[in-house]
UniProtKB/TrEMBL annotation:
Domain of life: Eukaryota
Residues covered by region (Disordered): 1-23
Name of the molecule in the record: Uncharacterized protein
Amino acid sequence: MRDDAPWAEPWETPEGGLRPEIVDQCREVARRTGARLPRSLSEARLVKNRVPRSKSDLLVRQGESLSSVYLTAALDIIERWACALRPKVPTQRLAEIIAKLVHAEEIEPPDTPLGAALRRMVPVPAQATVSEWPFLQDALELLRLRDRLDPTNVMNASVRGGDDMARLRSICGPVPVWEIPRRPMTTSSFASAVPRSAWPEARRHAHGPDLATLWCSGLSPKSQQVTSFRATRRGDFPPVGAARGICFASSLSLRQRAPLPRVE
C-alpha cells in the first residue's frame, strides 16, 4: 500500500469495500444454506414425503409456506454471519458490515427467493445499527452466553434429541449389546423347559416304568414313577440301615439295574 493511500480497517479495502476473503466466507455460508432449501412447489411436495434432512425440510413438513421457510433461512444466515464476523469486526460495525454483504456485495441476487428474503430482513447500510436491530441484538447476546459456557463440563454436553437415553449415551458411552447364544431347536418345547439332567428320566418314564429292570423295588408303579423323576443325582444311599440322603438323592433300590447275563 502506498503512503498516500487512505487508511482502511482490517476488514475493509482502501476503496471502502469488504475484503474478498470475508465476502467469500459469507458467500459460502449462504450457499450451503440455500442448497438445502426447496426451489419450487414440486420440490416442496417431495420434501413432505421424505425424512426431513434439515430445518427447512422440517418446516415444510409442518405446513409452513415457502416464503416463511425462506425468511427463517435468511435469519439463520444472518446469525451465522454474526458468529463468523464477530472475532474480526467490532460489535458497533457488525450491523453495517452485514448490510453491505446483502445490499452492496449482492451475495444472493435480489431476484432469487433467498436474496429477496435477505433484503427483507436486513436494513440498508445507512440505517443499519445494532441498537436499531432487535434480532441482531438477541443473536449477539446468545453468542456472549455461549462464550461463557464451559464445553468441557459434562453438564454442558450437547445431546441430540434431548431424551434421557441420548443424554446417558453422551455421558456414559453407548449401551453395551448383550447377545445370548441360540440353542438349536433339536428337541421339543417341553424339552427346553425341563432341566437337561431330568429330561432323560422323564422320557424314560413317559410310557410307565419298566418293572423288569427294577431290583426289589417294593413300590407301586405310581410311586416308582414319581420317585424316579428327579434332577441331577448328588449321592446314593442304601435302602435300609442308614439315614436318608440329601435331597434329590435316590435310593439304591430304585436305581436301574442292567439285566443279568443269561446262563446257557
